Structure formats: C-alpha cells, structure tokens
Amino acid sequence: QVFWLDATLEHPLPALFARLPAPRRDTALLALIAPPARGAGFVDPHVWLDPRLAAVTAAAMARVLEERGLVDAAQIAPRLQAFQDRMARVEEDIAASLRGLEGVPFAAMHDGYAYFVRRFGLRQAAVLALDAEQQVGARALSRMRREVRDSGAVCLLRERSGDNARLAQMIAEGSAMRVVELDSLASDAPDDADGYALFLEDFARAIAGCLRGPAS
What we know:
Blueprint (H helix, E strand, L loop, with lengths): L12 H6 L3 H4 L25 H17 L5 H26 L6 E4 L5 H7 L2 E5 L10 H14 L3 E5 L5 H8 L5 E5 L12 H18 L4
Parallel strand pairs: 1-2, 1-3, 3-4
C-alpha cells in the first residue's frame, strides 16, 4: 500500500503509479489532503508539521489498511492509539516551548510552515517564497531586505535543502535579525518508532530558539 500527500509536492509519483500493472494501479494510490492551511484554494501539503493533523492522517491510513484487509483492527488499534497519544503529548510540549513567543514576528524563505504556524498561533510576518531556479540580483535582494525589514521580523527561517544559506545571510546582513536553519523533511530523524515525535520537537525547538534569541 502506498500513501502519498499531494501531486504538487510529490510530482514524480503519478507517472510512476501509472506504469504499475492494472491490478495494482487501483490500490497503490491514496491522496491524503488536509484542509487548506490558509486562503481559499490554497493547499499546503506540509501536513506533517502539525501533530494533530498527523494523528488524523494516521487514523485515515489505519482505516484504509483495515478496509483493504492488510491488517486487522486488533493488530493496528493499539499502535494507532499509542501514536495518537504521543502526538497529543508532543503538541502540549511544543505549545509550552513556544508560550510567550506567539506575537514575535518572523519571516520565512519557504512557504511551507502554515500548518505549524496556525496550530501554535505564531506570527509569520513575511514569506519570500523564492523560486528554486530564480537568480537573485541586486534589485531583488534589496526588495527582499526591505520586505523583511518592514515586516518587523526578528528571525528568518530557511530550509536546509536548497541553496539559500548565503542568500539568507545577505538578507539579514546589517540587521539584528537571526537566521535559523530548519529541516522540515526530517532528514536527520531517527528511523524508529519515536523518530517522528523527536523530529517535531527539534523543529519546534529551533524556531523557539530563533524567536527567543540568545540567553542573556
């Protein structure tokens, strides 16, 4: 059984699934699209950054596995409950780590944090949403600096993936804005039962540290 989120995020998959033999083609694909994180018509595929939606997604996956006879309820129900309980604790822990930082404005170089921002009531003041192929010249850099400065952001979030480390530093140059690297794809998460929860907690910890700033 293959579970996937959205063709906009995982665009190579539709063509891959189309090449599967016909008996498998009907059962290989399941799109799990959560409600838009913001704005009519906007679908953010980064649902895994919201622990509550992760629990909902896990329940949907369990239901499909049961309906297709791949597992029985007695086998999967305890594991699903344990995961949902863990996600509830993770949500509480993250909320506690971000308490008092909800009004601190920050900017992001990647438009992929809407679910996390909404769940924990954070203030994302600007999103640069760069095209991966875009060559940034002096005029564009000046515009981005102005946009971030005018937003009042004290922190700039950037993704580990992609070649934007130098650009982020150039945008923040000459200001007191902090830059933090995030790994929203969980590249370093342990490959075990607790890896996902640890990834979410580390992700939140990085954001909280950037918003809070160094200890005095």
